[in-house]
Amino acid sequence: MTYQISPSILSCDFANLEKEVRAMQQAGADMIHVDVMDGHFVPNISIGLPVVASLRKKTDAFLDVHLMISDPLTYAPQFADSGADMIVFHVESDSDVQATIQSIKAKGKKVGISLKPKTPAEAAFPYLTQLDMVLVMTVEPGFGGQKFMADMCPKVAAIRKECDRLGLAMDIEVDGGISNDTIGQVCAAGANVFVAGSALFGKPDYAEAVKSLRAHAQAAV
């Protein structure tokens, strides 16, 4: 299984966004995680369409866009047009899940759904055959720097088990509190894509930080 590192720009220096993203790419990151929050679905506001569009003009990095918004059906196609490569939205949002998946696929983009901590693994099961990724939140979505929730590992394992049963080579992403100390737990449970913010952007040597995180994941299996 390929282990992929997705640095979250929520933790970067936004005054130097292009430079930060380029540095993380050069450091060996597999993709760039873009957290979009609307202040309604989650109690925080981050960035939107103009930032994704601007970033797309400056980098060829794979943009892993996580929509923590109430109405992904309306906005997901716009993020696709702005340059997102993968669009992940929440199964708990107000939009029809099936319609939202189809709207993203219609744009030729990869699609994933995300589950909040209180949402059971089974909420993703009806859609697995249509998805490229499932994102399991290992903190309550909305703010960076929160404490990792180890009790989400069984949810990761349940999704991996169901994907294996269906013969799906699914990417399972985890987001929240991921560091050298926690990545092994989610990796052992079946995750293979790891979002990290302060564990990467907060370090003096990005290349060493990415390398260390990946090594800790591989050591867990």
Question: What descriptors fit this protein?
Answer:
8 strands; alpha/beta; TIM Barrel
Account of the 3D structure:
The protein is an alpha/beta fold and 221 residues long. The protein has one domain: TIM Barrel (Alpha-Beta Barrel), CATH 3.20.20. The protein is 36% helix and 19% strand. The protein is built from 8 helices and 8 strands. Strands 1-8-7-6-5-4-3-2 form an 8-stranded parallel β-sheet. α5 links the parallel β6 (133-137) and β7 (171-175). α2 packs parallel to α3 (72-82) and α6 packs across α8 (206-219). The longest helix is centred in the last third of the chain and has 14 residues, at 153-166. The protein is globular. The mean pLDDT is 94.
Q: Based on the coordinates given, report the CATH architecture.
A: Alpha-Beta Barrel
Largest sheet: 8 strands, parallel
CATH topology: TIM Barrel
Which stretches of 5+ consecutive residues score pLDDT under 50?
none
Average pLDDT rating: 94
Task: Please give the oligomerization state of what you see.
Answer: single chain
Distinct helical segment count = 8
State the shape: globular
CA-CA gap between termini: 10 Å
**SS-based class:** alpha/beta
Total DSSP E strands: 8
